[in-house]
Amino acid sequence: MSEQGFNDNTINTIVEQVLAKMGKPTLIVLTAANGYHHEIANQLATWQGIHWHILASPNSNLTNELMAVQHLGTQAHWDGTNPSEWLNQYEQILFPYLDFATLGEVSNGMYLSSAAVLFQYALMKDMPTYVLDYQCDLASELNQLLGLSTNAAMCERAKQQLVTITTLGAKTGSLTNIKAAMQGTKTQGMALDTPEIPSVSTADPLSGYITLNEVKSKGVNAYTLQDNLTDLAAEYIKEQQQ
């Protein structure tokens, strides 16, 4: 690499770092995830105008979740006291892997975990609170892959819990919708500008599902929305076809 090329790359890196720090201070609160760790994190890395801070409770086993997102920004630390005051340093909060336990706590007004405490204090402060629902929506393809969506009564309970936190003020949805909400853009016609993403990692085999990695490798024209797609693959095709 030439000296000029090296200098240009160095300048570009510095500019990107400065722009990231000038972005909207946003807290990521980690909770346990069954899959989509890196898939979600890689897409968050493409979102513009956001300065990420990442909180992983030291009392929880969130090693895989933290490894997936730690490159996005600065790791935050909270001692568990004065949640309202501590949240003042952020403009918005995102739960990228909201799990059933935290969903259950928040929807029932319980404050057992640090994630549930911060979630509910953020809502009380009317702080923009966003949730990616791949983990906690039993109808999602991720939970279908894990064999968790066969009990209709449990599916309905999870659905109603999501309705409850939405009623309380949280915004839930897919990467596409949450990205639009956090960046103040419209979803129609907006393409997902994503880097190369590995196959979905779940506890069980994919059993014939077409992953985002396969779609990106073969091209969106090789598949239709009628194919057996994972959530992320279907979203990507929809956005590319608009």
Fold and architecture overview:
The chain has a 6-stranded parallel β-sheet with strand order 3-2-1-4-5-6, sandwiched between helices. Helix 5 packs across helix 8 and helix 10 runs parallel beside helix 11. The protein is built from 11 helices and 6 strands. It is an alpha/beta fold and 242 residues long. Helix content is 44%, strand content 11%. About 9% of the residues have low confidence.
Question: What would you say about this model in short?
Answer:
The chain has 242 residues and is an alpha/beta fold. The chain contains 11 helices and 6 strands. The protein has helices spanning 3-22, 37-44, 63-69, 83-86, 100-107, 114-124, 141-145, 152-167, 175-183, 212-218, 231-241; strands spanning 24-29, 50-55, 74-76, 92-95, 129-132, 171-173.
User: Approximately how much beta-strand content do the residues carry?
Assistant: 5-15%
Uncertain residue segments? 187-207
Tell me, briefly, the overall form.
globular
Classify the oligomer: single chain
Question: Which strand order do you get reading across the main beta sheet?
Answer: 3-2-1-4-5-6
